[in-house]
Amino acid sequence: MTTATVPVEAATPTATAPPPRRGRGQLRTVLLGLPVPLLFLLLWHVGRENAWELPFGIRMGFLPYPADVARGLANYAFGTRDDAFSNLLWEDLPASALRVLSGFALATLVAVPLGVLMGRFTTAHALFDPMINLFRPIPATAWVPLVALLIGYGDQASIFLITLSAFFPIVLGTISGARQVPERLLEAARMLGTSGVGTLLLVVLPAAAPAIVNGMRVGLGLSWVILVLSETTGVPTGLGSTIFLARDVVQTDQIVVGMICIAVAGFLSDRLLMLVFRVLFRDRPLIK
Known about the structure:
Layout: H1 22-32, H2 35-50, E1 53-54, E2 58-59, H3 66-78, H4 89-120, H5 122-135, H6 140-150, H7 155-179, H8 183-191, H9 196-207, H10 209-225, H11 227-230, H12 239-248, H13 252-280
Antiparallel strand pairs: 1-2
């Protein structure tokens, strides 16, 4: 008696789609980001050429041409002509960056611990929340006269204004993140015998990291925003002081050059901040 054998077909591996090419996606992102700036430059040139008058009374005839701004930027960086702004970028940029970094670091050192405490403890929130919400709406411009009387002029006044401006978004972001920590994480920490301070450092702080980072990014951006105002407090060098000098001598191309330098410095500092946090949290899916 023979038994029929059923042939077994060899299992063929299923075809899997190739992973998306990251380089192609990045190239597409770059290409999509080009049309709007190019259109902006074109409209800027045409508007200046025809002296357009825009809403809010904006008279484009008083703007410099984009080409004049490019030449001013080259002179500011490399000294292509002999004037008051020649080759000053490498003196102004480090001075401004140091003030922004100092003010931002001080704001972070105060705001993050305070925000964690306010987010987790109702007593701390009740103590500090009224004062924070009372001072938060006061613009930095209103602080300048008082700062001039209390601190005087110079780097300390500038750093104080930057610290004050960066503090509020960082503390509010930290409070929000600390409040949203899942209760199960806190219960697990208590079951493992983690102390109160250990829970704040090892559980609450990492879990609240996305909200803290968002607050820090907003605070860092505000630090660059307030830089020009803060450098009106008698500092001799800096991007903001150069902008005001250009205003005094009615050199509009140099004003725009200073604005561009602040924009680029703010963008790069934001990218650097995100890079630092990606390195710190590379093993945790917290920073995206």
